[in-house]
């Protein structure tokens, strides 16, 4: 990683090109799907001559891959483990990964965390989606972390975690931003002694799997008196990017996989290629996430999430898309000073319900004066709920697909 960062543009392009050509030729020779797909597109990897030729490789996406059997797009001769992702679209997508990819994965993650002075000997508290945690807080020796059962009530979590903190002295918080922020806010509101431990001992917060709410993130950092860092990645393991220089600007690791953008319908789609997955290769895989890219010498240098993950939009009365990341987080909503979370649900174009997570219920006049829905042709209704709606994995989605 450090060597690549010091390369000039020409050397970076050579590195990327060699990786891309190798995986493309390997897939063509060993994976039936790629052999047939490339032949149908009149493309042969052997014809790749330089970095500029990468754009000639046909694009794939989840829909294309879901339409064919897993064994048809995989190499069964190699060691593998099955992985699945529903992504933001909720459509399941199965593929294989190799056990040998774990050290490669963790090398890049440790590089990210080192930006907040993390070392391997440091103990973390992990707030993830696992449901098999024993005794509320348990030690994970493989990852050297205290793993928290986030499905338990906050008072139970706080009491168990305080005992574990006093005994083992963890110094970082890691996991879903919404889970971390919610606990911090509850600790502060209830004057729980664990908040003092956090203020005096926590050196940083590692925020993964969700795009952190800017307002909640800022408030949590102030309460714990530490910095945080977030990153962008996929279960598919073809893109990994992190906040290298500033918040919400993600610098990709081209040592992890090649990252680029392609323009579709006047929107820049984020595209990734995994170098090291020989079982179920993903080559020029369109994530369909819309970004604002910055290129330097024809290499993607960084990007910002401009329209959230695929599917995170609502429709106005004319069926125009209103992307939630910009609408919710890109505007200054004064209501953020009073609530913890905002979630959006729509069942009909032109109408949407805004769910506020709060212990208090505010009048319609108060909401209208503190929630900026100007210049949007949608009729909004509002509903207050004590806690945000979570997925089965414990995440807090911005867009609510189904409301019971």
Name the features.
404 residues, alpha/beta, 8-stranded mixed β-sheet, 5-stranded mixed β-sheet, 11 helices, 21 strands
> Structural class, judged by helices and strands?
alpha/beta
Mean pLDDT: 89
Report low-confidence residues grouped into runs of 5 or more: 86-91
- Provide the gyration radius in Å: 22 Å
The spatial strand order of the largest sheet comes to 5-6-4-7-8-9-10-11
Report how far apart the termini are: 47 Å
Number of strands: 21
Main beta-sheet strand count, sense and barrel state: 8 strands, mixed
Strand content: 25-35%
Quickly count the helices: 11
**Global morphology:** globular
Proportion of helical residues: 25-40%
Describe the protein in words.
The chain has 404 residues and is an alpha/beta fold. The chain contains eleven helices and 21 strands. α7 packs across α9. The longest helix has 22 residues, at 9-30. Mean pLDDT is 89; it is low at 86-91.
């Amino acid at each position: 990683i450090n060597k690549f960062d010091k390369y000039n543009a020409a050397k970076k392009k050579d590195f990327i090109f060699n990786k891309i050509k190798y995986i493309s030729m390997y897939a063509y020779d060993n994976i039936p799907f790629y052999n047939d797909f490339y032949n149908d597109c009149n493309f042969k990897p052997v014809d790749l001559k330089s970095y500029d030729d990468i754009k000639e490789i046909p694009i794939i996406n989840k829909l294309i891959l879901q339409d064919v059997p897993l064994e048809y797009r995989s190499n069964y001769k190699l060691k593998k483990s099955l992985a699945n992702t529903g992504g933001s679209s909720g459509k399941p997508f199965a593929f294989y990964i190799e056990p040998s990819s774990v050290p490669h994965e963790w090398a890049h993650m440790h590089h990210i965390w080192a930006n907040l002075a993390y070392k391997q000997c440091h103990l973390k508290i992990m707030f993830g989606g696992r449901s098999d945690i024993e005794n509320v807080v348990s030690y994970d020796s493989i990852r050297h972390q205290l793993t928290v059962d986030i499905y338990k009530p906050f008072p139970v979590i706080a009491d168990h975690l305080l005992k574990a903190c006093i005994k083992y002295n963890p110094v970082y918080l890691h996991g879903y931003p919404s889970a971390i922020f919610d606990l911090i806010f509850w600790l502060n509101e209830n004057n729980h002694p664990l908040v003092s431990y956090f203020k005096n001992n926590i050196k940083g917060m590692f925020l993964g799997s969700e795009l952190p709410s800017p307002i909640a993130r800022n408030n949590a950092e102030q309460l714990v008196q530490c910095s945080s860092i977030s990153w962008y990645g996929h279960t598919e393991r073809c893109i990994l990017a992190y906040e290298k220089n500033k918040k919400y600007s993600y610098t990709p690791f081209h040592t992890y996989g090649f990252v680029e953008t392609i323009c579709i319908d006047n929107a820049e789609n984020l595209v990734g290629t995994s170098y090291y997955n020989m079982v179920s290769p993903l080559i020029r895989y369109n994530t369909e996430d819309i970004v604002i890219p910055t290129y330097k010498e024809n290499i993607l240098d960084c990007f910002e999430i401009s329209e959230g993950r695929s599917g995170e939009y609502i429709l106005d009365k004319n069926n125009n898309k209103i992307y939630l990341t910009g609408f919710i987080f890109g505007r200054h909503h004064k209501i953020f000073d009073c609530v913890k979370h905002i979630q959006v649900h729509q069942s009909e174009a032109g109408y949407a319900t805004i769910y506020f997570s709060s212990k208090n219920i505010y009048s319609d006049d108060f909401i209208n004066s503190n929630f900026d829905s100007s210049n949007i042709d949608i009729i909004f209704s509002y509903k207050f709920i004590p806690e945000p709606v979570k997925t089965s994995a414990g995440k807090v989605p911005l867009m609510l697909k189904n409301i019971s």
